[in-house]
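User: My collaborator sent over this chain with a note saying "see what the structure looks like." That's all I know about it. Can you take a look?
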Amino acid sequence: MLEVIELWNMLLPGWIYANILDQMILPKINEGVEAWDPMSDNIPIHAWIHPWLPILGNFTNIYPFAFNLQISIGFHNFLILLL
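Assistant: Without extra context I'll predict from the sequence alone. Here is the result:
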């Protein structure tokens, strides 16, 4: 999917490409971040989010809240397990 998006970047006008990122790609990434469980998921989030960072560019400021929330929940659950 990432390769297709990279190809579209060269073929589509900027405003259409930005709309595709905003309407199709970012919601899926945001869903993945929200569904990610740092306590039980075998695949670390950086393994699937980092390849998208160069493509997302200015859009990367949209999902830090969800990411930080998931990290906080995971850390809280980890602390509960220690007690």
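A starting point for your reply to your collaborator: The first helix runs from residue 2 to 11.
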